[in-house]
Amino acid sequence: MSVAAENKTYFNFINGRWVKAESGGMEQSLNPADTRDIVGLVQKSSIEDVDRAVEAAKQAKKAWRKLSGAERGQFLYKAADIMEQRLDEIAECATREMGKTLPEAKGETARGIAILRYYAGEGMRKTGDVIPSTDTSAFMYTDRVPLGVVGVISPWNFPVAIPIWKMAPALIYGNTVVIKPATETAVTCLKVISCFEEAGIPSGVVNAVTGPGSSAGQRLAEHPDVNGITFTGSNQTGKIIGRTAFERGAKYQLEMGGKNPVIVADDADLDIAVEAVISGAFRSTGQKCTATSRVIVLTGVYDRFKEKLLQQTKEITIGDSLKEDVWMGPIANKQQLDNCLSYIDKGKQEGADLIFGGERLADGKYEKGYYIRPAIFDNVTSGMTIAQEEIFGPVIALIKADTLEEALKTANDVKFGLSASIFTQNIGRMLSFIDEIEAGLIRVNAESAGVELQAPFGGVKQSSSHSREQGEAAKEFFTAVKTVFVKP
Ligand SMILES: NC(=O)C1=CN([C@@H]2O[C@H](COP(=O)(O)OP(=O)(O)OC[C@H]3O[C@@H](n4cnc5c(N)ncnc54)[C@H](O)[C@@H]3O)[C@@H](O)[C@H]2O)C=CC1
Ligand SMILES: O=C(O)CCC(=O)C(=O)O
């Protein structure tokens, strides 16, 4: 890897201009594959910077709202075209900042472009319904109107797609935006923002402020002029943001953790199940809220499934995610790595058998990065910490079940409810699973991760604020309904 010769400095984007933080402070964004590679220096913004961005968004909201949906859509189409031309640059930056492999980052950037185009088209669709009034001389209808200023707080694990799937619907429905991305992947987010700039989006409509969550992020959540706040990240932070927004009567949307189960029934096609479990658990180094973390296998196929899983996991190539022969990159940052290693220790202490991996790789080519070998635990029981808490790393907990009923009970025995899969060829079992499982995303003979941009996305229980993102569902959050009664 060539270490960056020069450090590039990135600014906040406020009111159509790239500006320094008031404090003059900066933070580094490092490549987790080799921390000598500094991807960029980003602004360490303070409350004053957030306030300036919110003021710009507030000033811009009336003119933006007054444009037609089709006119707003044109800016999104343009931003999508620009992003398409810059796909390689943005994807490479995402890989360097986050550590997911280049094909994954390219796929994510392509998904971002598709999301922009999807919502650009939404600008032409209906915003309300006519409802028959009991008064036959009156006209009653609903109209969806923007919230005003929307604050976006985004995580590092999908540095392109998550900012876009929150900003694009906010914008098309007439809101202006202030985004505070995670510092780990702030450069990628600022590149996305520059596509909106190149597309000529009016000043103040999109603003980006980088900096610590506990100050800049918190200020965005508590700012009285931010009318709605959308967040993806940890449960701990989500709860703080939800409480803050609730206290001041702002609308909020939280997408948080998962502890996603996959059930492998004894009639499953084991080759397909193994492939999907490996992809769901280890792609992006396990750092997806939809990642597979518990695999509940029926006793009859447990040993055969385990052998196949072990065999294929051993073949995973680990290394610098920019390299072509690498299947799994590093963990995104030091805190995540330590967190993951401490869960692996906890699993061993609580009596689960670590049958593969789980050790930090720190020699030779791994010396300067945050690498770990994917881990498989055998003989896990549902009460163990590694079967209950979100690890957000490449760790599989194998759990045995004698019957489908028992498997379902175990699958539901967690505080989360984001995504869940079953592998079976029996339609009755599929239907029982669909009916009984407590999850917002249900997958049959498919991996737990991976969502389609045109479908609603979100969880139940502590995985979300029970709202849904993406597809048409986004309209629910990013607009308010006016019910209008007109008596001539
Ligand atoms: N659901 C998901 O997709 C994600 C889940 N996580 C989970 O969270 C754990 C910790 O990761 P972090 O990066 O620390 O997550 P985090 O939830 O603290 O960070 C996500 C975003 O929230 C911001 N933030 C942090 N504290 C804030 C506050 N008080 N007010 C407003 N914004 C704030 C951060 O700056 C970042 O932009 C991971 O191990 C994983 O379990 C992390 C990232 C994504
Ligand atoms: O599985 C996916 O593609 C989406 C996952 C996601 O939204 C997340 O990890 O935050």
TrEMBL record:
EC assignment: the record states 1.2.1.3
Matching entries from SUPFAM superfamilies are given as: ALDH-like
| GO MF | aldehyde dehydrogenase (NAD+) activity
Pfam families to which the protein is assigned, alphabetical = Aldedh
Q: What is this protein called?
A: Aldehyde dehydrogenase (NAD(+))
What is its EC class?
A: oxidoreductase
Q: Native species of this protein? A: Bacillus sonorensis
Quote the catalytic residue positions: E255
Family label: Belongs to the aldehyde dehydrogenase family.
Write the record's keywords in alphabetical order, separated by commas: Oxidoreductase
Its domain of life? Bacteria
Residue ranges occupied by any Aldehyde dehydrogenase domain in the UniProt entry: 18-484
